[in-house]
Amino acid sequence: MEIYCDNAATTSLDLEVLDTMIPYLTNHFGNPSSSHAIGRKAREAVEEARHKIAKLLNASENDIFFTSGATEANNLAISGAIKTYEIRNVITSRLEHKAVLQTLGQYSQHNDLEIDFVKLDNKGNIDLERFEWLLKNNQQTLVSLMHGNNEIGNLTDIKKIGEICKKYDAIFHSDTTQTIGKHRFDVTKLYIDYIVGSSHKFHGPKGVGFIYINKYRKIQPHIYGGAQERGTRGGTENVAGIVGMAKALEIAYRNLEEYENYVAFLKSKMITALHDLFGDEISFNGESDSSTNSLPNILNVAFPNLKKGGVLVNRLDALGIAVSGGSACSNLTNNGSHVLKTLNRNLDKDSVRFSFCKYNTPAEIDLIIKAIVDIYEQDIFVRKSVQNKTAQLIYA
Fold first, then answer.
1. Backbone angles phi, psi at 176, to 5 degrees
2. Three-state SS across the chain?
3. Which residues are catalytic?
């Protein structure tokens, strides 16, 4: 059995995307900065992809810059804004991705930079009144707040955040890595300066992403050595990756509402099954079980700890089911989830993040639930039937 439910970490490559990329991995291999016909062919592909992504976001082509992924794009937004606008104050959240928190941490150590963290409730929602108070009492402020949390799925109202930023003339960057390709953006209806995308989060290739920079904002580069991307990001463009990313985003937008409804159905099915099995012994981290306040594809579950051996993520992996305990980046450090630690939520429980995509099936959800039942039957729980004939797990 092999089931992949770690799509917040990465998604599989859409075969239609692969077909689009192959010519630029084989015949059309030119350097897009070259002046000859082979190079011009590659340049045309890059600019066509830029046009396509810009159109999907209702942005100008001049606002889209290609990067190696969202981590670089977030770094570019933050470092570029700090240097360009001599930022002295930053407002962010302790739930941000490490690409944001560690970048800000480096600048706070070596620059005269003050960082304020927004106030959060026990589910990770931002206190907007406190946020506005922080903005009101600071000048030259950069706000960096993510749109969709990669671990607990919480959605931030970036339209409202943007309106508050506009009121106080703050620069607004949002890490939109988990929502590009899953949410329909129209940047003309948002007061926002920088958003980012990473191709491999929406069935495109790894190693390529982009940043949208509002035309009214400038930004200093952080990679030097070439005039690529209009001098903002030096380095030869990943032509095949850029072409694939544009195609992947086009496919995502083609059936976006259908996708949202489908993965929300899968998540709801799992929530119902887990409630039936565990009753009050199960809980959900952040807003991940909400149908309105969270991403439809992410479910972060706090399970009762296993007593006879191991972490549930590892036990599921041994059965061929790929899930995670947090972000893929956190797994490399073995320090656990900084998101769950910040919320001080369910630290006495075994938290597992399930993240779904269009390729998952209801049958796979049934198999995952069966695997969980089998694991707990072997451990501290036994299965008994109840009068309504639903399966329930109780303490042995």
1. -105, 25
2. CCEECECCCCCCCCHHHHHHHHHHHCCCCCCCCCCCHHHHHHHHHHHHHHHHHHHHHCCCHHHEEEECCHHHHHHHHHHHHHHHHCCCEEEECCCCCHHHHHHHHHHHHHCCCEEEECCECCCCCECHHHHHHHHHCCCCEEEECCCECCCCCEECCHHHHHHHHHHCCCEEEECCCCCECCECCCHHHCCCCEEEEEHHHHCCCCCCEEEEECCCCCCCCCCCCCCCHHHCCCCCCCHHHHHHHHHHHHHHHHCHHHHHHHHHHHHHHHHHHHHHHHHHHCEECCCCCCCCCECCCEEEEEECCCCCCCCHHHHHHHCCEECECCCHHHHHHCCCCHHHHHHCCCCCCEEEEEECCCCCCHHHHHHHHHHHHHHHHCCCEEEEECCCCCEEEEEC
3. 329
Q: One-letter amino acid identity for 178? A: Q
Instruction: Kindly report the number of other CB atoms within 10 A of residue 186's CB atom.
Output: 10
Structure tokens at 366: 């049934």
Tens digits of residue pLDDT in 271-284: 999 999 999 899 99
This prediction's pTM: 0.92
The letter for the amino acid at 20 is: T
Distance CA 302, CA 57 (A): 36
Handedness of CA 331, 334, 338, 344 (dihedral sign): positive
What whole-number distance in Å separates Cα of residue 115 and Cα of residue 127? 17
Give residue-wise pLDDT tens across range 214-273: 999 988 888 888 888 888 898 999 999 999 999 999 999 999 999 999 999 999 999 999
Give the contacts of 344 (CB within 8 A, at least 6 positions apart): 122
The first and second tokens of residue 54, run together, are 């810009």
